[in-house]
Design a protein that fits this description.
The chain has 12 helices and 10 strands. A hairpin with a 2-residue loop joins β5 and β6. The chain is globular and about 60 Å long. The model has no long low-confidence stretch (mean pLDDT about 85).
Length: about 290
């Protein structure tokens, strides 16, 4: 059974012994990694990609995003992505392992940043000129430190990474007015807990009542939280996670449609197909034909 490739940081290290952090310009990264990244793939690390010139398309979990100057993307372990970029592409990219970041920041988890922790959260920011320049400066400083042999090098790199992540979180939060209030922050914390539970149990449990009970809140309140944070019902969030996994399996695993449905918790393929079609606008068979054409 062939599955989509999972890339590790050390594939891009070009002789470096460290395997928990990587930094490069986009031009040099495409030279170093072209044989690994020309097809859709997953990572086992977190990534941030800032484009400062050129154009293209970046597809993340079957969602296409336009690439242009100021496009800023965040990727979590397990996400499937690929890109088609113009020859004049410019920008910066860095990878880090969960351990590299969290062994220094015990109380700050990477999944606590919304663009890393939430499947339903946007993965792209489009920066204006001022924000783009701010991030270019941070990336350039990070790259300079990465190549240095300075004392307390890792601490300074982690500080720069945190500034990148915190600035991005603040920009994302501007789209959610309620996030400025204490109630909004409480909602977002509950939403993160909900998504974490969904990630663990979506193949076995698909009812709102299960997750609401696990969180100690009512189904009505859980729906209020998801509507506030991502403008979706709790059922939508659960179903989207199931269908996303179905798409990954249909594309990259050599299993039958019935087997995919069964592994995702559906005893009847016909019911699974209806759920898939309602969520994605096409049947599983139509999806395969579209993406494997």
């Amino acid at each position: 059974m062939n599955s989509i490739s999972v890339l590790h940081i050390d594939l891009f290290q070009a002789g470096r012994t460290a395997s928990d952090f990587y930094f490069n310009t986009m031009k040099d990264h495409l030279v170093v990694g072209h044989r690994h990244i020309e097809k859709p793939h997953r990572h086992d690390f977190y990534a941030a990609v800032l484009f400062t010139g050129g154009t293209g398309v970046h597809e993340i979990d079957f969602q296409k995003h336009e690439v242009s100057t100021g496009s800023f993307f965040f990727l979590s372990p397990g996400q499937v992505h690929s890109w088609e970029l113009s020859v004049d592409i410019e920008g910066y990219i860095f990878f880090c392992s969960q351990e590299f970041y969290e062994m220094h920041y015990v109380n700050q988890k990477l999944r606590n940043f919304p663009f890393f922790g939430s499947v339903s959260f946007p993965r792209k920011l489009q920066l204006d000129a001022s924000e783009l320049q701010k991030n270019i400066t941070l990336f350039q400083e990070l790259g300079k430190e990465y190549r240095s042999k300075n004392i307390m090098k890792e601490g300074f790199m982690l500080s720069l990474m945190s500034q990148v992540f915190i600035n991005a979180t603040r920009l994302f939060s501007k789209d959610f007015d309620t996030m400025a209030s204490s109630a909004g922050l409480s909602y977002f914390k509950h939403y993160q807990e909900f998504e974490s539970l969904v990630e663990q149990h979506f193949t076995e449990h698909k009812s709102i009542s299960y997750y609401a009970s696990s969180l100690g809140i009512s189904p009505k309140h859980l729906n209020r939280i998801t509507q506030t944070v991502v403008q979706k019902t709790a059922t939508d969030v659960i179903t989207e996670r199931v269908v996303l996994e179905a798409k990954r399996m249909l594309m990259y695993l050599g299993e039958s449609l019935v087997e995919v449905a069964f592994r995702l918790g559906y005893e009847e393929y016909s019911y699974f197909a209806r759920v898939f079609r309602k969520n994605s606008g096409m049947t599983p068979t139509q999806f395969i034909k579209k993406y494997k054409a």
